Amino acid sequence: AGESSGCTVRQFITGTATDLTIDTITYDPTELVQNYLISGCLEAKNITFKGTSQQIGYFVGGGSSVGYDKGLVLSSGNAKDAEGPNSSSTNTTDLGQPGDADINTITSPNTSYDAAVLEFDFKSNCDTILFRYTFASEEYNENDYIRNYNDFINS
To answer: How far apart are CA 94 and CA 29, in angstroms?
Structure first.
């Protein structure tokens, strides 16, 4: 996993203990976007989430593992699995949910599953917009992952 900031890529070691805590119960997707993703001179509307409540949440304590202390987590499985440590090569959650049509167009003839899609429109009253994100996978430790699967983010 890593965080891209300009030309800097931060690497994080999998399989280590973490202080990451994930809450998938307290906040709905609209609250997560409006209270924890959008701030300052930004206004969000038309917020939609496609997925289950297990797939989206709020995290704290990510300074040593994610690179920043708090934020949102989206998962194609159970978001709580990101709490770690990632010491199992077989930890997975199949939610039996559909994938995403846009991703399926790119990956055809293969199809995606258990998509977690958060979409919203935003309006800015300032001249600079910054989104910090870390792309990671619990499956990086698994042998079949590299050969058989791809993760996908569309921003």
So the answer is: 21
Contact 54, 79 (CB under 8 A): yes
pLDDT at position 151: 55
Q: Which residues have C-beta within 8 Å of that of residue 97, sequence separation ≥ 6?
A: 51, 52, 113, 114, 115
Residue 98, preceding bond cis, omega within 30 degrees? no
DSSP-assigned states of every residue in 103-128? HHHHHTTS--BS--EEEEEEEESSS-
Which pTM does this prediction carry?
A: 0.77
* Encoded tokens for 6: 């300009």
How many C-beta neighbours within 10 Å does residue 113 have? 15
Q: Which residues of the chain have pLDDT under 50?
A: 1-15, 145-146
CA 93 to chain centre: 15
